[in-house]
Specification:
The protein has ten helices and no strands. The protein has 199 residues and is mainly α. The chain is elongated and about 60 Å long.
Amino acid sequence: MTPTETGTRPRVEGERELEIFEATLQVLDEVGYDLLTMDAVAARAKASKATLYRRWKGKPELVVAAIMAHKGEAVVPDTGTLRGDLLEAYCGASGGLDDPLAQSVLSAVVTAMGRDPEFAEVYRRDFIGPKIAVSRAIYERARTRGEVHPDVDLAVLAPSLAGIVLHRAFLLGDDVTPELVGRVLDEVILPAALHGPTA
């Protein structure tokens, strides 16, 4: 019997699931995605490998599920302004700027996406997809308030803040703080949103 052909054994859920997620992120933080194995996570979580395969198809699905559980549900902030919503999205409770584990995990994820197409597909579908939806909702709502020019291409503008922040963090080595995010918003994102495309 293969790990996925397990009949009617109970599902992994609740506190046990959270323990496995915590073990997954600990191993990811210590060795990176390439060296993370289902065996290593099972050992850290004091579970059998079959237990993991009953709940997750493989390593990509387990790692992405653990990251999603750590970050929490994607929620659309509603502060009343585009600036406030974007600050809340990036610097609020789910932003992860003050979470060393989240930053280490993100570094591992960026590396893994360039090396493992299967992981990249699962991560884009299950994690990035909902983030894009939240970002789109923030900008669309701001457009109805008149904070975003009608001709702005949101497919270009919406990912720009994340792109700049990741560039500064991983390539320039900057600490990503609320102050830095605020400067990027005030000097780049908000003026571009209001001005619209150049003719």
